Structure formats: C-alpha cells, structure tokens
Amino acid sequence: MVRSATAKLLGSLVGFIGTTVPAAVLLTSCQTGNAANRDANSDAPAARVDGARLTVGPDSPALASVVVAPVGDSRAANSLRLNGRLVWDENVTVRVFTPIAGRVAQVLVDAGQRVHAGQALALISAPEFGQAQADARRAAVDLILAVRTLARQRDLAAHGVAPRKDVEAAEADSARAFAEKQRADTRLALYGGDSTSQSQAFQLRTPLDGQVVERNISPGQEVRPDQMLANAPQLVAPLFVVTDPARLWVLLDVADRDLPQLAVGQLLTVHVQAWPDRPFRGRLSVVGSTIDPSTRTVKVRGLVENPGFHLKAEMLVAVDVAVADAPRLVVPSHAVLLDGNDQVVFIEESRGRYRRSVVTLGPERDGQVPVIAGLQKGDRVVVEGTLFLAQLFRGLTPITPRGSGTGRDPT
After folding, report:
1. CB-based contact 377:92 (threshold 8 Å)
2. How many helices (H) and strands (E) does the chain have?
3. At what angle do helices 2-17 and 23-42 cross, to 10 degrees?
4. Rounded distance, CA 354 to CA 392, Å?
C-alpha cells in the first residue's frame, strides 16, 4: 500500500513538472540523501562520562585531532624564575636633607659626581646657623670670665678677704658657664661648624663616600628641615642622594608556594631588557618573615653586583634563583585548562579513554610549567585537542542539583 501511494505521488510529481525523469531516479536520490545524513550523523563521537573518565569510541574521527605526549622530566626547573625591581643598596645610601632653614647660596656638586665623606655638597645661607655660631662664641667668653672670677674669689678667700659664700657662688657660675659652652658647642657641631667661624654659610655635607645619583636643589631655593617629613623621603624628594652603585638590592615578591625553594645565600642571575645577553650575578640575602596581606606574597631581597654601573635603580628585572638540582615533571602550558578555580589536564589511559586530573603547577617558563601535584612520571597527557575533550566532558557530565553532592569525581 505504501509503495503504491509513493508511486502515485511520484507519478503526479512527474506529470506536474512535465519531465520524463523516471520515478526510480527520484527514489534513488532520496535514499542516497538519507544515507548521507546517516553517515554525517555517524561522524559524531560516541562518548560517555564515568566519574572523572571520558570514553570516546576508538574509531571516532574526532580522535584525529587529539595528540598526546608523555609527561616531561626536566632539570631546567633547578632555577626558579621571579620578577622584581632594583633599588639602591640602603646600607651604602644616604638621602641628604638640610637640618637648618635657609636659602641655597651655591651648589657644589652635580649628579654623577663622585664625593667623599665630609665633602660639602652645597652652601646654604642660614641665619639660624649664624645664631648658633654666636651662641658658641658667647658661651666661650662667658666661661673664660667665670673661670677668672672663680680664681680671684678663691685667692681673696685664701687671704681672708672674701667670704666663703662668694667662692661658692663663683664656683656655681663657672659650672653653669662650662655647661652652656658644652651645649652651644654640641649644637654647632651638629651643623658641622665651630665657634671660631663667623660666617652664616652652612655647608651641607655628605656623611658617606659614593656617587651623587640624584640632585633636587638649585641656587636661590628656600629649604627647611621639615621637608624631611619625619624621615619619609618617598613623600618629599631629598636634596641629594649619595650611594655606591657598585652593588644594588633586588626586591622580589614571592608566592608562599615557592618559599620552600628559597634560602639565604642562594645564587641569583638577574636579567634586564637593556642588556638581554648579559646576566648579572648576585645572592639572596633576606627572606621576609611575614606575608603581605594585600598581595599574599613574601618580601625577598637579594644583593646584585653591578660592574660598570650598568644597572640602575627602579629597573624591572627577571631573576633566576638557583634551587636544589632535582628533576621535576613538566608539561606544555597549552595542555592545561582553567576550569573554575582548578587547573586540569586530560591523561590518556588507553586509545579513546581519558581521565580528567586536577593539577598543581609552578610558574611557567619557556612554554613549560612544572607539575607539583596531580601527575606521575610516565603519564601521557593530551597536548592538542584538550579544549575539545573538556567541552565534550562538560557536555556529557550530568548536572547535580544544589545540595546533593558534586556529581563529579574531583580527581
């Protein structure tokens, strides 16, 4: 009955279009189209998910895009790559502020110039400095007068002319004059002057040998001691910065997971963009004791040699820290996918059978990432087609209602 109805329908179509195409040809075309559709549908991978395992038919054409490779075993991980910045070595650096208010009369040095401890950097006309000089001279004169008066009173008392109380008063005046002279001399010494000078020109000196790497002062400029702002040079620039640039500090922010690999005394290799083919050597000197609550990192400091003075403060650098020479498993970075808060890879157990594994990784270097946990030596990891397997895994994984479990093996 179905055949007769189909034949009638085909006969009507043939008569309608006015052609002589046999009905058998149209029927064959329909059958061919259906077969093509079946073949196209057969290209879809027959896959299923069982816990953390994904199984794809071994004859599926989709497997042609999946490439696997064994987990690498590399000793290149014996150096930990970190990012940091250079600063002046604070043990040989001084930021010079003025201890006295006044006007800059003359600048004696410029940036880049070598200086010695005690050398004058600038002259400042300071009335307060002149007042300190005058106080020191007056205290010296008062002390001389008090000493002479005491000697005279003692001589008079010895001849029975002066009473004892005059001698005691002269002794008290002499002691006060001596104390006042000490105070005035100490104050003047803090400014680097002495009571023999009568000039108001205060000499701003450097307490350390080194090189002037920063100058923020000009003739005629008004300066005050409160520019220091309670020793906060990051708020107001110092008048001069003098340092020895032969060695610099390198400051690093290290994640807590890398702390077990760090120890004081480890070798550092510093790389800068200005000299990409010239490494600079140093050593790790300080590992911080606290974690920064905002960045969740630990402050680490190293000391870097700077021959030729090529390195400059505030340069951004890449630092290789030499760690224990132990082989570590590594995988290509593109073999790892981020799924929520997890980093996952797919391990091939057999042809068409894959296991999703959550891994813990170290920092990437040269396209490779070290594997801290989640893989074993000899595992074969999917390095091409990982995204396809992840999409297939997610599409086939049943959705578990909230509160009824995870619905997926976390491993």
Report:
1. no
2. 5, 24
3. 110
4. 11
Contact 333, 369 (CB under 8 A): yes
Angle between helices 127-158 and 164-190 (to 10 degrees): 160
Using CB atoms within 10 Å of the CB of residue 63, give its burial: 0 to 12 exposed, 13 to 18 middle, 19+ buried: middle
DSSP element (H, E) containing 283: strand 280-291
Report the C-alpha gap between 203 and 39 in whole angstroms: 95
Instruction: Give a yes or no: residue 189 inside a domain.
Output: yes
**Strand duo 368-373 + 222-223: pairing:** unpaired
pTM reported for the whole predicted model: 0.57
Residue 392 carries which DSSP code? H
Residue 89 contacts residue 243 (beta carbons within 8 Å): yes
- Contact, 253 vs 292, CB < 8 A? yes
- Locate 302 and state its tokens: 């190293």
In a domain, 284, yes or no: yes
Query: Are 348 and 307 in the same domain?
Result: no
Based on the fold, state whether residues 57 and 145 are members of the same structural domain.
no
The tens digit of pLDDT for each residue in 218-257 reads 999 888 887 665 445 555 788 999 999 999 999 999 988 8
Do 355 and 289 belong together in one domain?
no
Q: Using CA atoms, how far apart are residues 210 and 358, in angstroms rounded to an integer?
A: 54
* Residue range(s) defining the domain that contains residue 371: 47-74+328-396
